[in-house]
């Protein structure tokens, strides 16, 4: 019997005997790695080729945007819109010039040395004792606030007496936080003073300067256009008339779902992480907070408390009590970018909403650092790192291409929108049940229409007074704040826009109320936050989260009210907000 292996003629001709045999598992792994079994991974190929053509690519991109910017400046009909394109052009040029260039790090190292040199002169020579440095910082902050508040002339909707009440409200909030602090001797006043000053500077930029209005109005216009694209999707699924129906289901939820899917594309490209990292580095450097606190505080207004906590998921089990309190406070003090787009669709002032979100970042830090000062040593002190940057991070579930990222974002958007829907449904139903029981009991005491909203509206009456709203509107606005706290901010905003007497408030009252309602500090968010953080920490911080969440809820509520009080101090020209709302 012949043992020689018989070779098929066609194999011998083309040399198939030298071809390596692969298993089905290897093919699947190769598919998961490259994103396609038929075509190469073009993203990976570009990353390999890019270093050789880096200069040429950056020069071409720079020339293209330089031509774009010059074309705007040259045209007379477009020249008046120079501010936003110029800011974008400068930022883009800085990014292109600094694209992985070592010289930039060297340059910034020298800038840092010069900065620390002058700081040492001020700290060590002029103000050698810490108490004098704090006194000087507090005096400068107070002077800035007083000058900006009272120097500008009075108007019919911005009297100095109203501004004085708003200023007193800010002072009362800070004093109340100090009085109820868990450890007054451990309060880091540098972070508190810096946070209040930053909040005020942002408010001045938005409410008193044309550049600030143009910048935030530009963002607002983009948000409104994004809302219009979501309407196109609704029109495709139903019809054009249905997409124009001003209902929560047809206006807010589609915008939320689309925005989450859309932002995941930029998350896949690293744009979101880049912006959050820059914000986090700034607050980490300016307020001397830990890396975990800086990341979550900076990310909460953009992506919400759940997604911002994911950025530090590997650190969650090891956060100090103060850091955990700060993470939750940041989430309660603002709204996320997803619901922001939906609320703009209701007809609210987009400029007020966007600026309130940004103002809440330093405000939440200042409030939390007073209410729950740091008494432990943080493992993220001195560094700003995302979970994906840390050792042992599981990055295997990252999307392989932009389509997968968009698909996963759409799924998360559906989950977010459905969560909002079911939360609104259940919370409103539960509150109605409790109100029904309270009304039944109240009838025996001859109290008509006793309800949670009625009780809380009287509780929040003093806080509403200190916002500086018109006297005859205090109780009406107090009821809106109560509705926001008991139910959620959407219910309160819907009442503000569509129900009498709330939609008949003065311009000043409406604007301050818009700021006061712009936060997730409500009872429904407590359950969501508990579930998200317990899941991400795998139950290891459940007890700490439960003990601190109510304190964080009220801290976030106070931070939002501080933003409203600051807006009441600085409101001078309400016409710009009317223009923004009519876009």
From TrEMBL:
Concentrative nucleoside transporter C-terminal domain mapped to chain residues: 353-568
Single GO cellular component term: plasma membrane
One Gene Ontology MF term: symporter activity
Keyword hit for Transmembrane: yes
Source domain of life: Eukaryota
Bilayer-crossing regions: 50-70, 82-100, 135-152, 164-180, 187-207, 247-267, 279-296, 302-320, 327-346, 412-438, 450-469, 512-536, 548-571
Alphabetical list of Pfam families matching this protein: Gate, Nucleos_tra2_C, Nucleos_tra2_N
Annotated localization: Cell membrane
Family recorded in the similarity comment: Belongs to the concentrative nucleoside transporter (CNT) (TC 2.A.41) family.
Full protein name: Sodium/nucleoside cotransporter
Organism: Australozyma saopauloensis
């Amino acid at each position: 019997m012949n043992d020689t292996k018989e070779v098929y003629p066609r194999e011998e001709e083309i040399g198939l005997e030298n071809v390596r045999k692969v298993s089905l598992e290897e093919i699947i792994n190769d598919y998961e790695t490259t994103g396609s079994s038929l075509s190469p991974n073009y993203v990976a190929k570009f990353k390999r080729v890019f270093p050789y053509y880096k200069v040429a690519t950056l020069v071409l991109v720079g020339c293209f945007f330089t031509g774009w910017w010059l074309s705007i400046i040259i045209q007379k009909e477009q020249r008046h819109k120079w501010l936003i394109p110029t800011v974008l052009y400068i930022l883009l040029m800085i990014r292109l010039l600094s694209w992985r260039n070592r010289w930039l790090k060297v340059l910034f190292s020298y800038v840092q040395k010069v900065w620390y040199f002058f700081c040492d002169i001020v700290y060590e020579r002029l103000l050698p004792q810490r108490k004098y440095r704090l006194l000087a910082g507090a005096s400068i902050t107070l002077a800035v606030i007083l000058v900006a508040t009272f120097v500008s002339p009075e108007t019919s909707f911005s009297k100095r007496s109203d501004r004085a009440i708003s200023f007193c409200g800010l002072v009362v909030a800070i004093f109340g936080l100090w009085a109820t602090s868990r450890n007054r001797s451990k309060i880091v006043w540098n972070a508190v003073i810096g946070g209040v000053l930053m909040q005020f500077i942002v408010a001045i930029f938005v409410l008193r300067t044309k550049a600030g209005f143009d910048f935030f109005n530009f963002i607002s216009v983009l948000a409104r256009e994004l809302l219009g694209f979501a309407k196109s999707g609704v029109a495709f699924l139903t019809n054009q008339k249905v997409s124009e129906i001003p209902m929560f289901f047809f206006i807010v939820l589609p915008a939320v779902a689309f925005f989450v899917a859309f932002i995941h594309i930029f998350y896949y490209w690293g744009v979101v992480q880049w912006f959050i990292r820059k914000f986090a580095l700034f607050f980490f450097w300016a307020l001397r907070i830990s890396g975990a606190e800086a990341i979550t505080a900076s990310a909460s207004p953009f992506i919400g408390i759940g997604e911002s906590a994911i950025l530090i998921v590997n650190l969650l089990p090891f956060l100090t009590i103060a850091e955990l309190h700060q993470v939750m406070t940041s989430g309660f003090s603002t709204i996320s970018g997803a619901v922001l787009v939906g609320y703009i669709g209701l007809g609210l002032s987009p400029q007020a909403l966007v600026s309130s979100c940004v103002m809440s970042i330093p405000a939440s830090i200042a409030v939390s650092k007073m209410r729950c000062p740091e008494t432990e040593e943080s493992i993220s002190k001195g560094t700003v790192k995302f979970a994906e940057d840390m050792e042992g991070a599981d990055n295997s579930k990252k999307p392989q291409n932009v389509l997968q990222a968009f698909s996963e974002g759409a799924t998360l958007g559906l989950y977010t929108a459905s969560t909002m829907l079911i939360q609104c449904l259940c919370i409103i139903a539960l509150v109605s049940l409790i109100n029904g029981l309270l009304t039944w009991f109240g009838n025996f005491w001859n109290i008509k229409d006793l309800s949670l909203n009625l009780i809380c509206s009287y509780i929040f009456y003093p806080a509403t007074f200190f916002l500086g709203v018109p006297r005859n509107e205090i109780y009406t606005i107090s009821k809106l704040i109560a509705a926001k706290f008991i139910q959620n901010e959407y219910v309160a905003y819907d009442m503000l826009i569509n129900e009498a007497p709330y939609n008949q408030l003065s311009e000043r009252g409406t604007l301050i109320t818009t700021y006061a309602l712009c936060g997730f500090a409500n009872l429904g968010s407590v359950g969501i936050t508990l579930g998200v953080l317990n899941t991400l920490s795998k139950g290891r911080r459940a007890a700490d989260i439960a003990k601190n969440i109510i304190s964080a809820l009220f801290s976030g509520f106070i931070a939002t009210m501080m933003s409203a009080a600051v807006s009441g101090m600085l409101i001078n020209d309400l016409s710009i907000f009317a223009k923004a709302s009519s876009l």
